[in-house]
Amino acid sequence: MKIKISIESSIVTKPILAEAIVETGALLNISQAHFDNTHGEVVADIPSEQFGHIRDSLVKKGAEVVVLDTPISRDEEECVECGACVSVCPVGVFSLADDWSLEVDPDKCIQCGTCLTMCPHNALVLGQ
Amino acid sequence: MVKKTIHEINGRIRDGSVNVVTAEEMVDIVGELGAEGAAKEVDVVTTGTFGAMCSSGVWLNFGHSEPPIRINKLWLNDVEAYSGVAAVDAYIGATQASRSKGLEYGGAHVIEDLIRGRSIDVHGTSSGTDCYPRKVIDTTINIYDLNQAIMLNPRNSYQKYNAATNSTNHTLNTYMGTLLPNHGNVTYSGAGVLSPMHNDPNYETIGTGTRIFLGGTQGYIVGEGTQHSPESGFGTLMLKGDLKEMSSEYIRAASFEGYGTSLYVGMGIPIPVLNEDIAKATAITDDDIVTNLLDYGIPSSNRPSIRSVTYGELRSGSIDVNGKEVTTSSLSSFKKSRQIANELKDWIKAGEFFVSMPVERLPRDTACNSMKLSSVNPLVGDIMTSDVSIIQAEASFNDAAKTIMDKQFSHLPVVDKNNSLVGIVTAWDISKAVAKAEYDLVKDIMTKDVVTTSPDEAIDIAAFKLDSNSVSALPVIDAKKQVVGIITSDDISKLLARRQ
Q1: Which of A87, A96, A118, A124 to mutate to test the interface with B (most CBs of B within 10 A)?
Q2: How far, in whole angstroms, is CA B193 from its chain's centroid?
Q3: What are phi and psi of B148, to 5 degrees?
């Protein structure tokens, strides 16, 4: 399963991810990370059965953990299947099929929102 | 030598014996039968394209009000329409932005709302005349209340279009969509094999008066489009059609982040196969159509081409850019383009659409020139401060503070051992370090992501960079990243003060 770990700037220098991994033994695989001067954000894959442990461990250390279970959804009325979204997605959610229809694989989505701004037809929605 | 006339082909459309194929299907037919065989076999080849066409709009006539008004200024759902033509005519352009909703809603959305039969708020003002005494009009209309709603697009159906990428280290929001940093993606537009003008590159059947598919109904080619530039392969068309008959299936409003609104227009042209030369031309494939990959990181109308690329390569999903495999995105919809070519084919087969010859051919030797500028635009090199103090990345925080004090200059470009720019330190960075009591090396407190300019960049571009990045100075660097000067918002203010 995918989770998003938000880390405030005050604790960003502490190795809380490493500590949580050592503590829980969870195989946490980072798929995306973004840090700026206000906060840090890490998207990671973890084995579902270890979710409770890793969440508790991270929350105890001051991080916020959200399950990424509401991936991108497409409004088929608005979408014209141009494929503008294909090249901006960092994890390959979108592709064009042989008949040039747009195919969406929401399981891959890390909810970064890059495709939302790219879509010329406002056909993509997050968190619904 | 095969020779057919429009009359013969229309006769076959009338009696139902016409053979129509799409430009995609024609590729294999010519491959199999040869141009001569295909010209005998096929009567009409249909094309189609569906993409963003900014240069689009609609002429509206509202009818006269009681008491009458000659509208000088007009807004439709708060989007300004041009009404400087008689009393109650107006032109709503696709890219005009709403006064209240900004870039999200524009003329294109008004056009789509009209097609969908939705209500539009009309607000018009006038100075009032003896014959048109009314000064203000406020009403609500829909498309059925209008006398005419005639789509008239000054520049549609670009023969082909340049593909776009971005060499800078930051994301660009353009009319070619989001362009990721460091050549992170490539975007392109155009229907390739189905592209209307590429299937008749000598404009033998495409010209003034040609009947076409426009927005789901029959439309016409008015003539060459603006910026028609056939010699470089960038022909364009001016199109007209009745908006009242159009469908939102084929006319869609769009908005590009940070750019604004545009209109996706669906259009297709039937090409009557009058002879084998025309048959041969309609066998064009994606691999035959070459365009340029331009760097939109260069803020100039004269963007350098990184490489030439075929539509075949672009449509494969990725292309090579400087040795790196980069994912491509189409901004136009090939699926819709194909749908249009097929629908046009069905109309012709059903005897509902007849082909036509142009009453006037399109020019084949015009070029698209740049704007004449009557005054010389100053460059960064003309007004920058060349006497700029720099500091080494390894220098101490105190050295930086001292230099800023001594030189009375609040921005200090930071360089490495080779004198290449690696960052910038401002008086603000110094204050922040003092406030946090973190006295480190310059490299620890500097801003690493520096926005820069070059001596030969136009002042307007430097001003845009200052504004859009919310910074007050730009280091000026040469091709080797050596600092040759600095330009501040003060320098630009002074220049403007001198101009006025």
Answers
A1: A87
A2: 21
A3: -135, 145
Q: Return residue ranges of chain A for CATH 3.30.70.20.
A: 73-125
Q: A80 CB near a chain B CB, below 8 Å?
A: yes
Please answer yes or no on whether A120 and B335 come within 8 Å at the CB atom: no
| Minimum CA–CA partner of A119 in chain B | B256
Structural domain for B96, as ranges:
63-146
In the three-class reduction of DSSP (H, G, I as helix; E, B as strand; rest coil), residue B408 is classed as: coil
Angle at B335 between CA B238 and CA B158, to 5 degrees: 25
Residues of B in contact with A87 (CB under 8 A): 180, 185-187, 326-329
Q: Which of B3, B130, B131, B144 is catalytic?
A: B131
- What's the pLDDT at B449? 86
Confidence of residue A2 (pLDDT cuts 50, 70, 90): confident
**Residue B108 and residue B198 in one domain:** no
pLDDT digits (tens, 9 = 90+) for B172-221: 999 999 999 999 999 999 999 999 999 999 999 999 999 999 999 999 99
At residue B284's C-alpha, the angle toward residues B280 and B290, to 5°, is: 135
pLDDT at B376: 77
Nearest to A80 among B50, B255, B329 (CB): B50
Point out the residues of chain B with pLDDT beneath 50: none
Instruction: Tell me which of 3.40.250.10, 3.30.70.260, 2.60.40.10, 3.40.30.10 is the CATH number of domain A2-67.
Output: 3.30.70.260
Class of the CATH-defined domain A73-125? alpha beta
Query: What's the confidence (pLDDT) of residue B499?
Result: 66
Active site residue B131: yes
| Cα distance between residue B430 and residue B442, in whole Å | 9
H helix runs in B170-281, sequence order: 276-281
Contact, B274 vs B4, CB < 8 A? yes
CA distance B490 to A55: 51
Interface test with A, best of B54, B332, B335 (most A CBs within 10 A): B335
pLDDT at B382: 87
